[in-house]
Every structure is written in C-alpha cells, then in structure tokens.
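For this section, I looked closely at a protein sequence along with its fold in token form, which I now present.
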Amino acid sequence: MRRIGVLMAVDENDPEAQRYIKAFLQGLHGLGWTQGRNVEIEYRWGAASVDRIRTYAAELVGLKPDVILAQTALVVAPLQRETSAVPIVFTQIVDPVESGFVASLAQPGGNLTGFTPFEFPTATKWLEILKEISPGVTRVATILNPIQSPQVKILRAIEAAAPSVGLRLTAAEVSDAAEMERAVDAFARESNGGLIVVPNAVTISHRELIISLAARHRLPAVYAYRYFVADGGLISYGPHFVDQYRQAAGYVDRILKGEKAADLPVQAPTKYELVVNLKTAKALGLEIPPNLLALADEVFE
C-alpha cells in the first residue's frame, strides 16, 4: 500500500478544486492506482489560510507519504521548508525557478517538479483583452497577493505594458477578503476603471466576492481561469487546468514506480482558452467585439 499526500490551497467545498481532484483520481485509476486497494490518499485543504497551510504541511510530511501533490506556491513554500526528501508534484506555480523551487525547468534537481500555468508575457494579453472589450477604460486595478514573488513579477509585466494600450495602473495588494473589498471599493470611486485579477490562492478562494464587487461597481474584469467566467465573471484567458491534474497523476505514478522528481521536467500548459460571459457583458453595457467572440473557446449566454 502506497501513500499520497494532497495539500490544496483552497477550501474543500470549492467546486473547481473538486474537478481537479476528480481528474487527478481518474488519471491515477487509469494508471492502475485505486484508493483503498493499493494506495491511500491523505487530503488537506488550506482554505487560503497561511497558518492552516503551514500546519497541514507539517502534518502531511509527518505522515511520511511516498509523494505529495501540492497546489500553488502558497502550499509548496511551507512544504519545501518541511522536507527535502519527500517528492512533491506541484501545480499552478508561476516561475518555479525564480521562486527557488527548482533549479531549472528541464532539470528540477531536487525533490520538486510539476506544472506551471503560464509565462509572464501572458499578463500583457490580459491588458489587451481588457482594452479591446471595453475601449473606454483608462484605469486598471491589478488584484494580486504580494507575499508571492511571482505575483510581483506579473505586476511588473503588466506595468510595463500598460502605457502601450493607454491604461493607468493601480496595484491592489490583498491577502484576505476584507482587504479585497476595501481595495475595489476605493478604486471604483473614480470612473473608467477595469480590473485584472491575478490568480493566486486568495483571489481563487474569494472569486465570488471579486465577481460581485465587479458587478456592483460595473467594472469590466479580466481573469486567468475559466471558472471565474462560469461563476459570472466577464472574460478569461488562461490554461486548461483539468488536463494538468491528469498529467500530475502521471508524474505521481512515475515517482511511485521509482523515478525521481529531480529528473522529471517542469511542464508548461499545452492549451490556452478564451472564455466569455455574454450575460455579464450585457449587464455591464458592453458589446463583445465580433473578432474576439470568434476566437472564444467557450461562451456563456
């Protein structure tokens, strides 16, 4: 009987996270691993709480699993402090090299490997989409979590590109729901604003609040992931994560069969998707440009 630890950054009741876990389990099952027969899986859910995640990281490592699946840098950082021996397969980490998690993408070199969601130039695409979908926008607030260094690099990429599309940037640094609400309320006091929501455990966990704040203040907002749009957000451009969790099962399988995380290259997304919510656009008084709509992979009506 082998043991897998799973530490997710978000809440257990998050439906998107449950989709990820379902895909991960399906991937494992297809490779011959079945819960209760030849593998035990220990789950922990961080609910975007730094303290809770730190506690669960120590707890999981103490169980001496054969491998750990870890979601986001908020989870991987405390796990890395707890162990340099237990193999860790991570997901949703931007720039794992700069974060100090791996030596290189091709040769991770330690006990961590996994999957990265996008490269920094993707952030400039969010700006372009915002300006195209709402030409009247002149100000943009970028909602991010500053305690994660890649978030700051994403902000710098957006800052560098903002003048070229005629946008003035405000950084909204948030670590919880209260800070998020204060930041958006303050930003919305002036007109012609829009939002870019940088993905992290905080914005993902509180996405319903962000979407409701955008609606309340009539702010067009661009997100990185499809499920923000499925929950009522305006538009998203980013990777398809369900596939990455199936791929993560493949890496877990290879580690359980004797391969080392150090030798498994970090993988980037193979597919990006553009998703639009026409109902939200209508509520904001926006008409999606036909050329943008033609490029959409999915449209919610």
